[in-house]
Amino acid sequence: MSEESKNKLIETFKPYSFVFLELPVEVVELDPNQPRKAFGHRAYVGDYGRLLNSIAHYGIEDPIKVCEMTEGRYIIMDGHRRFTCAKELKFKTVPCRIYPKMSEGEFEARRYEMQNNRRGWKPIERANSIHKVRIEYPNASKKEIADMLGITQTSLTHFTELRNLRMEYLELMSEYNLKEHQRVGFMRLLPKLRKIKDYEIDDIVRILFEKIDGSLLYRICDFNSLSKIFMNASINEEELLFFLQEPKVSVDDLLEMTQLSGISAQLKNLIREVSMKVSLDIKLTEKEKELANDLLLLMSNALQ
User: Fold this and answer.
1) Is residue 256 predicted with pLDDT exceeding 90?
2) pLDDT tens-digit series, residues 266-275
3) Which residues make Cβ contacts (< 8 Å) with residue 212, sequence separation at least 6?
């Protein structure tokens, strides 16, 4: 198709005058040809549940866009989830923006534009908006705020912590396009980080983002494992140094290396337990003394 023909085609799609009406639910139909499938019906339990809760509290604030097929019959162009929620909540009517009957080609083109030209929240935008809500309701509990916004208390805490992060960390999250579970994992890991040899915490953070980008640090369990390893950094320092120096070493590799020296962790735990007893002036039992003597003998032979 020539450029001139394309322009002529686009020119046939004229703006329509706004017609807003509350339509009875029974005259509005879901479109079986809707490209985006699995709206509602618990297919996406979390998202659908949040939308259902929102509509139950506030009603349908964004009108459903429908096209009049014949007199008294309308098919949904945009708003299938909202309509499904309205039916589940037993609404009698739904607010609609009504388009006149149009060709199938224009119908599909307009629907594509409606559903394509949307930008999701950036994490910091959502965090700032939630912060403003909390300021407006200073006496509300975390549960009340979370219920009002249709999110979990854990998510509420996550966005609060996100807003308090240093700006350069927020910029890195945006630059590397971190998924939500990765942001949560990073924020939980951050307080556990400590200097390793010449690597300051900011150096380590940069390396971690590179490993995230290379899918070497990806799952939430990867962040949890790394947190545990950093919590025992004094006995895992050599392995952590290797992990930081080698770009291709994954968290799984690091976990395997630290587990090979698992006796170090056991000895550290033993030292902690004995130190606690000494500090509390608790005497060892006869059985403990017997085992301690056996350990002393083994260690003496091992250290020769």
Assistant:
1) no
2) 777 778 788 8
3) 176, 178, 182, 218
CA 175 – CA 186 distance, rounded (Å):
14
CA dihedral 258, 261, 264, 270 (to 10 degrees): 100
Q: pLDDT at position 90, please?
A: 95
Q: Length of the chain in residues, anyone?
A: 304
Tokens read off for 259: 């587990």
CA separation (Å) from 73 to 27, 67, 76, 87, 202? 5, 9, 10, 17, 61
For the chain, how many structural domains are there in total?
A: 2
Q: How far is CA 263 from CA 116, 287, 292, in A?
A: 56, 22, 16
Could you tell me the end-to-end alpha-carbon distance of the chain, in angstroms, rounded to an integer? 85
Give the domain-ending residue among 116, 144, 173. 116
Tokens representing 40?
A: 């509602």
Determine the Cα–Cα distance for residues 301 and 294; give it in Å rounded to an integer. 11
Range of the domain at 288: 266-302
